[in-house]
Amino acid sequence: MPEAEKSTMSLLENAKSHLKDLVAFDTTSRYTNRPLIDHMAAFLREYGIEPVILLDETGEKANLIARIGPADVPGVVLSGHTDVVPALEKGWTSPPFDLTERDGKLYGRGSCDMKGFAACVMAMVPQLVAAKLERPVWLCFSHDEEVGCLGAPAIAEWLAKREVPPMLAIIGEPTDMKLVTGQKGKIAMRCHVHGTSGHSSFAPDHVNAIDNAARIIAMIAERAGEIAENGPFDHDFTVPHSTMLATMISGGVATNVTPDLCSFTFEIRSLPTHDARAELEFLKTRVNSEILPKMQEKCAETGIEWEEIFAYPAMGDNTASEGFAFFRDIMPEWSGKVSYGSEGGVFETIGGIPSVIVGPGSIRQAHKPDEFVEVEQLSLCLAFLGKLAAKISEPA
Ligand SMILES: [Zn+2]
C-alpha cells in the first residue's frame, strides 16, 4: 500500500498493514532476506532516512541499520531479526505467509517472532521523523537470528564503532510486552568420534565409535546433573541453572559391523554468570584424559573431533546501567529472565551496549503452526514505543 494512503490510518491499522507486508516475505533462515530488507529500506527512504545495509559474505543476507535523530548523543536501539523458522509443520489453518486476522489474533509465520515488533517500529517511523528527538533511535534489523544469531554481531560491531554509541538496546523478542532482564547463552556443538570398523564378531579388536560417543554423552549428562545440583543458580530464570545435553546422534551401518563413526550434537545453555566456554574446555579435557587415550591405545588413528555449530553469548542483568536508568520510568512490568536465545547478549557482549528484551506476543506462540500475535499486544507495543518517543523528544 502506498505510504500516502497509510497516513490516514490509525497507528494500529498501520502496524497491521506493515505486518501483512512483512509476513508476505518468506524469510525462512535458509532463504535470502534481501527482498524484505529492500522493502524496509525503500520505506525508510520515503521519510528521508538513508539506511546502512550490511551484507554478509555471500551477499544473500543483509542487516539494516537506520538512525532517526541526532548522532552526537547516546540513544536507544530498537532491534529485531527479520528471519523466521520454517513453516513446514502440518496444522496451519491459514497460509503461513499470508497474515490472517481471526478473533483479535493475527496469524502468520513470524507474526509473533518477531515481525510484529518490526511492524510496530515501522508504524512509528512517521511519528519519530516528525518529532524533535533529543536522542537518536537506532533501528536495527538483522538476518539469521534463528540459526544462531549470525547477523547481529556485525550490527553490534558497527554500532560500537560510532563516535557516540547507543546507551541501551531494546530487543523486541516476544515477552508479552513485559520487561525481561536476562537471557541464557548457548554453544551448539557437534562431536565426531572416529573408531575402527570390522566384523562385529571380532569386536574386541575394534574401537567402537558408538560406545565411545556414549561415554562422552554420559559425561555430559553427569556434568549436567552436577550443575543442576550445585549451580551456579539464578532463580529469575524458570530453569535456574545452566543446562547441558546431547540432542542428535547418528552412527553405524549394519547390525553386525563395529561402527567406525558416531556423530552427535550437544548444547550448553548457560546462565550469564556461568562461563560456557570454560565448561566446554572442562569437558574436552576430561574426554582427552579419560576416553581418548584408551581409544588410541588400541589404534593410533582413532580420534575425536569437535566442531562448533554456533554460539551466542548470554545477556546479563543491565538494570544498573545508566542507559537503563534513563528509560526506567517508561519500562513495562518486569517478568524475569528467559532461557531462549536473543540478540541481547550479542549487543551487550560484542557492542558493549546494555540490553533488555521487551516485545509483543508470547514465546509460547512462536515456532509453532498457527503462530499468532494478538492485536492487543501490538497496541501495547505501540503505546510503549510512543512513551519511548516522548521520553527522548523535546517537550512540544
Ligand atoms: Zn525471535
UniProtKB/TrEMBL annotation:
EC number of the protein: 3.5.1.16
Q: Which GO terms describe its molecular function?
A: acetylornithine deacetylase activity
Q: Name one Pfam family in it.
A: M20_dimer
Cytoplasm listed as a keyword: yes
Against InterPro entries, the record matches this protein to:
AcOrn-deacetyl (IPR010169), ArgE/DapE_CS (IPR001261), Bact_exopeptidase_dim_dom (IPR036264), Peptidase_M20 (IPR002933), Peptidase_M20_dimer (IPR011650), Peptidase_M20A (IPR050072)
| Cofactor dependence | Zn(2+)
Q: Which UniProt keywords apply?
A: Amino-acid biosynthesis, Arginine biosynthesis, Cobalt, Cytoplasm, Hydrolase, Metal-binding, Plasmid, Zinc
* Key word Amino-acid biosynthesis present: yes
- List, for all copies, the residue spans of the domain called Peptidase M20 dimerisation: 181-290
SUPFAM superfamilies linked: Bacterial exopeptidase dimerisation domain, Zn-dependent exopeptidases
State the PANTHER family in the record: ACETYLORNITHINE DEACETYLASE, N-ACETYL-L-CITRULLINE DEACETYLASE
Belongs to which family?
Belongs to the peptidase M20A family. ArgE subfamily.
The protein here is known as Acetylornithine deacetylase
The organism's taxonomic lineage, starting at the top: Bacteria, Pseudomonadati, Pseudomonadota, Alphaproteobacteria, Hyphomicrobiales
